[in-house]
Amino acid sequence: MSRGVPAVEDEEEVPGSEQSVSAPVTQEEPERELTHEEFDPKGTLALILTYFAVLAIMWVFMYFVEFLGNDLIVVG
Amino acid sequence: MSVDQETFADRYPQEAELVRRAFLVAFTALGLGALFGIFQALHRTNVLRIIPSTDYYTALTAHGVLLAIVFTIFYLVGLYQWAVTRSLDRSPTNINFTRAWLTLMTVGSAITGVTILLGFVDQIGISADVLFTFYAPLQAHPLFYTGLVVFIIGTWLAGVDWFRTWLHWKQDNPDERIPLQTFMVLTTMIMWYIATIGVAIAVLFFLLPWSLGLIDTVNPLLTRTLFWFFGHPVVYFWLLPAYMLWYTVLPKLAGGRLFSDPLARVVFVLFVLLSTPVGIHHQYVDPGIAEGFKFIAMTNTMFLLLPSLLTAFTVVASMEHGARQRGGEGLFGWLTALPWRDPAFTGMALAGLMFAAGGFSGMINAGMNINYLIHNTLWVPGHFHLTVGTAVALTMMAGTYWLWPQLTNRRLYSRPIGLLQVVMWFGGMALMSNSMHVAGLYGVPRRTAEPQYAGFDFNTAFGSMAELNIQLAVGGTLLFVSTLLFLGNLTLSLGNPKVEGLGQSLPEPLSGAEDSPRVLDNMRLWAGIALVLVVLAYVLPLGAIIQNGGLFGTGGDAYPVSVLGTFDGLDAVLELLGVGR
Amino acid sequence: MHIHQYEKLWLGMSLLLIVGFIATITYGAVGVGVTMIDDSGGNVDPNALDEHPEFSDPGVEKVGENEYEAYVVARQFIFQPDPIVVPANSTVTFYVTSADVVHGFSVVGTNANTMVIPGEVAEVTVEVGEPGEYGIVCHEYCGAGHHSMEGMLRVVPEGEYNSSDGGEQ
Ligand code: HEM
Ligand SMILES: [Cu+2]
Ligand SMILES: [Cu+2]
C-alpha cells in the first residue's frame, strides 16, 4: 500500500508512526507495534454491540409505537 | 526524519494539478451550495427572507445539484485520480485524455449550473426549477438536461481512463494483486456504469427530446423509475470515496493499520452487486408499481446494509489498533488515546459517528411499510444530511486537510481552525438534522418554502414547531459558518511558503491482500453478476409500467418551468450566448 | 482468507439484524395487514379527467355498508374536493390522481401518504375512527406555488354525514 510515495524504510520504527501532515507537531508517536495476532479489537466489539442494542430498541419503538400506533393505517 | 519525503505533487506534478483543479470545482460548488443551504434553513423557518417563496425552488434546485452532484462527484474524481496514480505508481496513459474528461465534466456542470441560476432572473425566461430529481412532466430548459449529459459522459471517460491505466499496469505486473485503492476505484466505476444506464435512458431517450419538442409526451412513472434506478446507486457513488478515505487514510491518521484488506474488498464487491437492484425503495408509495416488486427491493436493500455494517467494524477496529499502539488501554479508555487534535482524524471520526445515526434513519426509510410514516417529510433531508451531508461531506473536508499539503507542498494555514471547523459542522448538523427528523415525524413535508399552512397546525408531541424551527435555523447557520472556515483555511494555506517533506506514506494493512481469494479481483465476474441482478430486479417492473402506461405515457401536457416553453435546441444555445432572437 | 472471530460474530449479528428487519416488515404486511400502494388503481389520461366517470366530479360516495370511496384530483395548487368529508368509523378508499404534474397526498400526522403521478391512480384504503379534522399536504414539489397546496379531511359524526358534502368544492 505504501507504493507510489515510497516510505522511508526504517526497521526500528513502528509502522504508521510517521506523523500525519495535519496533526499538531507535538503529537506523540505510537509507542509500540501490535501485529494482527497480538491485537484483539475488544473495544470495537463493545462499541458495536452497544450500537446493535440501540438499533434494535429504536427499531422496535419506531415500528410498533410510532408507525403502527399512528392513525389511518393503510389496509388496502 | 533523515530523508524528506517526496509528496504527490513532487512526484506527479501534472496529476497533482488536475486533482487540485477537480477540488477547486468541488469547493466552489460547496461554497455556493452552502450559501443556498443557509438561505433555505432561514427561509423555510421564517427567520430571515431575502427572496420570495416562489424563488425558493430555484435555490433548492441549485443546492441539490451543486452539492449532491457537483461537489461530491468532482471531489470523487480528484480523489480517485490521486488514488489510482498513487497506488499504481503510474501516470495516466495519456494525460491529455485526463484533462479532456475533467474539462468535459466542468463544462457540463457549468451549463447545468448556469441554467439553474438563470431561474433567479425572470426576465431571461430560462429556468430549471425542477429540483435535482427533475420529475416529469415538470420540464426544465433543454440546457439543463444537456449539461447533465455532458457531465455524465465526462465521468464515463474518467472511468475509461482509470481502467486503461490499470490494464497497462497489469501488463507490467501480471501476477500482482490490484492495489487496494485502485481496486476501490475500479469497483466504484463498475457500479457507476451500471447505475447511469437508467438516467442516461431517461434523459437521452425521453426528457431531452421532449424538452426540445421532438416528442410530445413522456410516461412520468417510467422516467421517475429510471431516475431512481440511478438515484440509489448514486448515493454509494457519494459514499465510496468516503469509504476509501476511512479504509486507507483514517488508520494512518489514527496511528494504526487497516484491520483487514480482504474484508474491504468484499465490502466494495457487495456494493457493486447490490447497490442498483434496490432503487424502487424510493418508490414504496408510488402508484403503478406492484407490491411484490417493492418487497423484493426492500429485501435487497436490507442486505445492502451488510457492507456498511461490516465497514463500521473494520474501520473502528483500525482506529482502535492505532489507539492501542499509542498506548491506549481499557475497554473504552483507548478512545482517549486517539489523535483528536488532528482535524483530519477528528473530522473523519465524527463523520463516521454521524453515519451510524444516519444509518438508523436509513433503516426506517428502507422499511417498506414504515416508509408511510416518513415518506417525503422533512425526516428524509434530516436523514441524508447525516449521510451525504456529513458522512461524505465532512469526510471529504477532513481528508482535504491531509491531502492538500501533499498536493500543494504548502502547510495548512491553521490546524486549530480546521479542528474548530469539523467540530462546528458536527454540532450544526446535530441540531439541523435532529430538528428535521422530529419535524418529519410530525408530518412537516420536505421541499416547501413555508413553515406553516393556512388551514391546520402541525401537532407536536413535545416542544413546539417554533422551537424546532429555531433549532433548524441555528444548525444551518453553524454549518454555513463551518463551510466558510473550511474554504477560508484552504485559501489562506495558498499563502504559506512551499516547503519540503510533507509527503506521506500509507501503512500496510494488518491482514493484507494475500489473505484474500484472487477471485475478488475478477472485475468481469462482478460486473456480470451485477448486471444479471439488475435485469432480474428491473425487467418486470419496467415492463409492467410500459405495458400499463405506455412508453410515452397516457397523455398529458408538459409543464415547462421556463417561461418561453418549448423551442429548438439551437435557439436555446444562441439565447444563452446572447445572440439571436 | 482469515477473518477475526469478533468479525465473524459481528457478521452473524448483522445478518440477524437484517433478517429481523425483514421479519418485522413482513409481520406488518401479513400480520397487521398494512398494504402498499400498488398498481390496482389503474391508469387514466390526465388530460381527459373531465370525461372520466368519477374524476370528472371528484367527491365521496357510499359504496357499501360503512364503506366509502373518495375520488380526489390533485392539480397545481389545489386538491379537489376540499374539504373531503367522510363519516366517522368507516372504511374509506381514496382514489387520487393528478391533472398535471407529480404531487403528493399526505394526511398530516397519519400513515395515509402516497405519491400522485399523472397517468396513474393511487388507491389508498384506511379505517377512519373518531370525528376530527386532518390537514392534507402536497409533499412533492409541483411548481412555484407548491407550498400553498393543502386540503382538509373532515371526519364527521355518522349522523351528520350528508352524501352531498364530499362532492362540494
Ligand atoms: C451549509 C450546509 C447546509 C445547509 C444549511 C443545508 C440546508 C438544507 C435544507 C434546509 C434543506 C431542505 C430544504 C427543503 O426540503 O425545503 C436541504 C436540502 C438538501 N440538501 Fe442541504 N444543507 C447543507 C449542506 C448540504 C450538503 C453538504 C449536501 C450534500 C453533499 C446537501 C444536500 C442536500 C440535498 C440533496 C437536499 C435536497 C434537495 C431537494 O429536496 O431537492 N446539503 N439542505
Ligand atoms: Cu436509496
Ligand atoms: Cu406540491
Short description:
The complex is a heterotrimer of chains A (76), B (581) and C (169). Chain A has 76 residues and is mainly alpha-helical. Chain A has one helix spanning 42-67.
Structure write-up:
The complex is a heterotrimer of chains A (76), B (581) and C (169). Chain A is mainly alpha-helical and 76 residues long. Chain A has one helix and no strands. Chain A has a domain at 40-69. Chain A has one helix at 42-67. The longest helix of chain A is centred in the C-terminal third of the chain and has 26 residues, at 42-67. Chain A is elongated. With 581 residues, chain B is mostly helical. Chain B has a single domain, classed as Cytochrome C Oxidase, Chain A. Helices cover 67% and strands 1% of the residues of chain B. The longest helix of chain B is centred in the middle third of the chain and has 35 residues, at 220-254. Chain B starts with 7 loop residues before the first helix and ends with a helix. Chain C has two domains: 1-34; 46-165, Sandwich (Immunoglobulin-like). Chain C contains one helix and ten strands, in the order αββββββββββ. In chain C, the strands form two sheets. In chain C, strands 1, 2, 3, 5 and 8 form a five-stranded mixed β-sheet that branches. In chain C, a hairpin with a 2-residue loop joins β2 and β3 (78-80). In chain C, 50% of the residues are buried. The complex binds protoporphyrin IX containing FE and copper (II) ion (2 copies). Chain A: Keywords: Membrane, Transmembrane, Transmembrane helix. Chain A: Residues 1-37 are annotated as: Disordered.
